[in-house]
Amino acid sequence: MKKINVTVWNEYGDDQKEKAVKDIYPHGMHITIAEFLNKDESIIAKTAVMQDAEHGLKEEVLADTDVLIWWGHMLHDNVEDYVVNRVTDHVRRGMGIIFLHSAHKSKPFMQLLGTSGSLGWREAGERARIWTCEPSHPIAQGVPNQFAVENEETYSEPFGIPQPLETVFISWFSGGNVFRSGVTFQRENGRIFYFQSGHETYPVYHNEHVQKIITNSVKWAAPVIKVNSLDCPNIQQLEKI
Amino acid sequence: MKKINVTVWNEYGDDQKEKAVKDIYPHGMHITIAEFLNKDESIIAKTAVMQDAEHGLKEEVLADTDVLIWWGHMLHDNVEDYVVNRVTDHVRRGMGIIFLHSAHKSKPFMQLLGTSGSLGWREAGERARIWTCEPSHPIAQGVPNQFAVENEETYSEPFGIPQPLETVFISWFSGGNVFRSGVTFQRENGRIFYFQSGHETYPVYHNEHVQKIITNSVKWAAPVIKVNSLDCPNIQQLEKI
Amino acid sequence: MKKINVTVWNEYGDDQKEKAVKDIYPHGMHITIAEFLNKDESIIAKTAVMQDAEHGLKEEVLADTDVLIWWGHMLHDNVEDYVVNRVTDHVRRGMGIIFLHSAHKSKPFMQLLGTSGSLGWREAGERARIWTCEPSHPIAQGVPNQFAVENEETYSEPFGIPQPLETVFISWFSGGNVFRSGVTFQRENGRIFYFQSGHETYPVYHNEHVQKIITNSVKWAAPVIKVNSLDCPNIQQLEKI
Amino acid sequence: MKKINVTVWNEYGDDQKEKAVKDIYPHGMHITIAEFLNKDESIIAKTAVMQDAEHGLKEEVLADTDVLIWWGHMLHDNVEDYVVNRVTDHVRRGMGIIFLHSAHKSKPFMQLLGTSGSLGWREAGERARIWTCEPSHPIAQGVPNQFAVENEETYSEPFGIPQPLETVFISWFSGGNVFRSGVTFQRENGRIFYFQSGHETYPVYHNEHVQKIITNSVKWAAPVIKVNSLDCPNIQQLEKI
Predict the structure, then answer these.
(1) CB-based contact D129 C166, cutoff 8 Å
(2) Complex ipTM, two decimals?
């Protein structure tokens, strides 16, 4: 069986290299995510960070990527537009993309969805309960009906997104808020999954259920086909109408 | 301006005539709902109950109804199938329908949506917070970003419905649950809104925001057109192809 | 790999046993469909017809069916309601279902979609061109951008269905009509595909592209999970909120 | 009743000032469109063209626009990005937008939908038949079941758009093609309608049904609310959880 090539991208800013974060993710969240993905024998996960040449997302990297995972927070504006355009073009041509946590304000997210990605938020270390709305969705397989993340950044509705194709998860926060925390979209040939859990100062990506969800989402988002171009062909009339 | 004719239907079983409920809704919830709707000058609301002949939903009643509001809980199975078929036929031909609270297991709800309407529940008088996900939806106009209902029956995901056309409201419950509490659907010419709040032993229909939501939903669900039939016409070939 | 168990159901009325049809489908369309499905090594297809006991759809048959294919036309009303309820219950619990051609007026189709399934039609042997709208959909893999069926019953918009989850195919008819001929839906755990091509007096099910589409749709509709029941559990409050 | 302020925008390139087009639209298509819109007493339509300062779409113009109509073809790339961003920001905050014909490749269309807008095309003066799929949609009111446009540029599936909220119209072309010619979307507070008919060398905008559709779409897309900003507020914990 052909394996799924994943590239885990992280802005990996200075704030992620401070002690509070390093204690949880010594080599960065992208390494932790790639590590648990690589435990699945159908996945080959590599990593890339913003500081790499062309943000680590050269044409040949994306051409060889089935699913791209995107983590960004403080440095969204520093991502070069030509790289963003390259990423979204690949999604439209078939590459899957998983947006994690604060990637709701990343350039590729907004460019693909067409909305602002706005939401309410606070950092209060509240308990989050992630509820499954679609138990038969491939992304929800092996995930309990609900599970808790003891400390999480609170995100709140209204969430500035188009109506999702599927609302797979909704989160409850102990401070009184709710949030559509796992939603799917499709943009031409590319599948998109947004998943909210994952603030950098909490060990969320060590949670077994979060790992299961992200692993499932990679398999779900792997391309059915990748097309070479999305031009507007001048087509001839059919010979026999 | 043509007024919107509303019929508020209630199963109005014996349990609703006991003291606990009568203290809140002396003449039944249908009367309370019709009363606040009639405060809106664009609406004329009448009522019908299960004990009426043909459940109060004779052909001429439905023919004269723009939007039907449905409240049922304990007596779903007692609703005659021929009345259910008449109701759903009118919806498909253009009549709007609003399903309240436990109507998620009513025959018309399941017949129109095609799903079981299953959900988790408990009666624990928990606080519910109703969050607006779509602030620009007509049903959300004049409704705050979120509001609390101090005591409500808890409903929980997963909710057995098709992907909604729009998820307008999601509710948070103090016991740890979430629920898609305000969702829209369309079935041919008829618009459908389900709204969760409204357990009979709590004074939910006296809440100003709940009243606003139901009033808005009536205006949103009023038919654009009502068609006479939904047959399958044998059509001729176009004269000039 | 676990194989996909398919049951191909046909009303198989007297009209299908007349010469015009028998010349094309000597043993009935269900046999032809099962035969081409069985050429795919991941599928095991059996058949059932209306004349069998319980229409050939006993509980144990459905319990062992991953995907049910439904062909009916003249005898929709003769299908017993208890069998229809059993079929739709299995769909909601995870069984996939493929509705072919005139099954748009079958009881299970209307019960699952909640709409009338109405459309315009004529029998004029017109050429149909089936266009692919979603080239990356699993059901469209290996199917050309468009292909012709030389003679087909003409179906025409408006088609009385809810907005599909995905519009995979749209058909053009030489007499001037269009029709959403390949559409997907989901009802709780069950996936639904409707495909229009396949009038009994034309050899449509011998067309290689039609065979490819139906084979693909079986794989797409195979259940992710099958659940035992869709009741409404009385749930306890979470121990630690 | 508050009137709906419409701005009809046209790239109005040199090609539109040549005889073939001027014979049909002496002062440009934008003037023709504004003229028929202004016949409706609920609408006040003004115009703007690319050659105006800031393309005629200064902040104060958009702030005063309820619905923007966009016609562009040859000069998509010449539209300044800061104007595009201003337009799409207004849509997200509530302004409606109607994209006509070749605007499927305009910058605002692609930025709002997130897809390429690709399609097949040929200029062969074929007959188009526009079929109504959703007879009860507000945009379809007063429009016949189907109508012909005698000569139109042919557009063909696959059309590179997300699954529409509603597919209101599908077109049949005499050369054998089909196209989803009238589709709706929503992006946060703003409603979007794309309508295909309207090649500049054919008198399509003089067709009564086309005029009806565009007029209806303006009323449908008029904002329910316009919000001031779509930021991400840092929200406090609720006082009483």
Answers:
(1) no
(2) 0.96
